[in-house]
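Saturday, quiet lab. Running sequence design on the structure tokens for the scaffold JK sent over.
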């Protein structure tokens, strides 16, 4: 194996894999380096209990993966199948529930059980959300313009942005401006009146964010969980058959098929810079590899604060990196079960156990959970989002057994300002299990194995700074041409030959592949290579 390449990609998460696959497809000699001995980053399937039990141990559902990326990399050829799952249920402490179904008429009748007014408002709400989704998603696979630049491409992109905004019409432009700055609670309050109906929608506004349901800007976070699709069904969610690692495997197979090489099992110690230009990487095992293009899929702080010599960077730039908001707020439990849990509220409607289940009654209860996080402890009454993927994908477990993925808000990066201890990790896990037991008596007896993941584990194992699952918070000051930093939104780093392809860049987190694809387009343009990356939303 040579130690000189056209490009080196750091980090084999799904964005790094996307970027590397497009560069290799364009004919570049590409090396991917990965600190773990497996590829996938947070998009990975692993046998964590027994070999016949497959876990999606970090990211666990798929919706945002850009269909253009799926098609242009021919991921179906490499075995990737995304299976939609239908419906969801929000369970309340009093034993009731509200279900959401694929059929909109059934969903409307379900809402009508609680409020006829809210049932009528559901149609208007769905319409308005889809309008916002259609507007924003057309920019996911486009490079943000620099609003301070007079370069033709930036002026044209600003003009394009303005034209698309004008198509919304005057009233909708005003609504959009309000929407981006509203809290999810205030936004939902303009449509619905019943607390459980509002609660059933509110969780999507705070997942992965260090904000509460009453925090301004959480309405936008809702879009991040509504603008995807599965198999052409807008707003739907699905499972990657074989776990989320199937996405990374397909991308890696595509990369290798196009001549790429992978070195795994040693972290990058330093990005090598000579004469103001990135020249390669030095690994902790002592190996060095060289290229004129270095692409980082790591978080912004890991890239510049941990893996670069401060002497190679401007102090003003480093200050902005240190101020980048990347606070973790999420935890996760992966649980092997001996059978299907018996949720009291769903005994008359077992269909809904195939979808996601939320344990929440009201936005007030959600806000109190956030108060715990602000006080530096994990939520004692947490927001829980549960899925049993094996109900839809039986290949993940032995017959009759199941895997449950439990996503939890709010979990701080540190407890009372100090690093997590093993005892605290166990206590957090028990808090979650006790909560589920209240809704599904006998749940504890079904547990065969349990893995508890706090922000500590997410950072140590996957490299997500502070355990932030989006590689940076999705707030207005960190979106579009402000992501990750003003002046650095076009995937280029502060030194020549260096690029950023991770979720710290536009358009942000989730298993989307857009940052990796967009960065590849910029790299190929700078190298005067034929572009192999699609741009824009091809189906609209």
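Result came back. Writing it out in full:
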């Amino acid at each position: 194996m040579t130690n000189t390449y056209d490009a080196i990609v750091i980090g084999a998460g799904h964005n790094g894999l996307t970027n590397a696959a497009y560069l290799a497809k364009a004919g570049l000699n590409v090396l991917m380096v990965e600190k773990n001995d497996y590829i996938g980053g947070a998009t990975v399937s692993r046998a964590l209990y027994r070999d016949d039990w497959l876990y999606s141990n970090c990211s666990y559902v798929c919706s945002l993966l850009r269909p253009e990326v799926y098609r242009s990399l021919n991921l179906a050829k490499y075995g990737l199948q995304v299976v939609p799952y239908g419906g969801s249920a929000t369970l309340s402490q009093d034993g009731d529930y509200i279900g959401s179904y694929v059929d909109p008429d059934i969903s409307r009748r379900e809402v009508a059980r609680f409020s006829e007014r809210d049932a009528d408002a559901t149609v208007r709400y769905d319409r308005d959300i889809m309008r916002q989704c259609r507007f924003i998603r057309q920019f996911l696979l486009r490079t943000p313009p620099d609003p301070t630049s007079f370069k033709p491409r930036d002026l044209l992109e600003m003009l394009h942005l303005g034209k698309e905004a004008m198509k919304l019409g005057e009233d909708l432009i005003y609504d959009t401006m309000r929407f981006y700055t509203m809290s999810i609670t205030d936004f939902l309050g303009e449509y619905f009146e019943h607390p459980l109906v509002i609660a059933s929608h509110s969780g999507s506004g705070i997942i992965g964010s260090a904000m509460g349901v009453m925090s301004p800007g959480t309405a936008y976070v809702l879009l991040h969980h509504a603008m995807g699709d599965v198999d052409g069904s807008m707003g739907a969610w699905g499972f990657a058959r074989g776990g989320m690692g199937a996405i990374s495997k397909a991308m890696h197979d595509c990369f290798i098929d196009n001549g790429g090489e992978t070195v795994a099992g040693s972290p990058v110690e330093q990005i090598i810079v000579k004469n103001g230009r990135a020249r390669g990487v030095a690994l902790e095992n002592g190996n060095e590899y060289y290229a004129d293009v270095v692409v980082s899929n790591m978080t912004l702080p890991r890239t510049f604060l941990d893996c670069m010599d401060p002497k190679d960077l401007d102090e003003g730039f480093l200050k902005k990196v240190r101020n980048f908001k990347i606070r973790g707020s999420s935890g996760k439990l992966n649980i092997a079960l001996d059978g299907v849990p018996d949720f009291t509220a769903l005994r008359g409607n077992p269909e809904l156990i195939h979808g996601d289940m939320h344990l929440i009654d009201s936005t007030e209860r959600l806000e109190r959970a956030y108060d715990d996080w602000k006080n530096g402890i994990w939520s004692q009454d947490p927001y829980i989002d549960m899925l049993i993927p094996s109900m839809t994908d039986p290949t993940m477990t032995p017959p009759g057994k199941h895997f449950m993925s439990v996503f939890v808000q709010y979990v701080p990066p540190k407890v009372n300002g100090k690093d997590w201890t093993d005892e605290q990790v166990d206590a957090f896990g028990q808090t979650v299990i006790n909560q589920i037991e209240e809704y599904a008596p006998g749940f504890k007896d079904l547990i065969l194995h349990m893995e508890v993941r706090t922000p500590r584990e997410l950072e140590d194992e996957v490299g997500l700074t502070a355990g932030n699952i989006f590689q940076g918070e999705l707030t207005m000051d960190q979106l579009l041409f402000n992501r990750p930093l003003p002046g650095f939104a076009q995937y280029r780093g502060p030194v020549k030959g260096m690029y950023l392809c991770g979720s710290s860049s536009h358009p942000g987190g989730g298993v989307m592949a857009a940052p990796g694809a967009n960065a590849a387009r910029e790299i190929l343009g700078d190298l005067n290579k034929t572009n192999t990356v699609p741009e824009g939303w091809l189906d609209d």
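Notes for JK: The radius of gyration is 23 Å. The chain has a mean pLDDT of 92. Ask whether to fix the surface positions before the next round.
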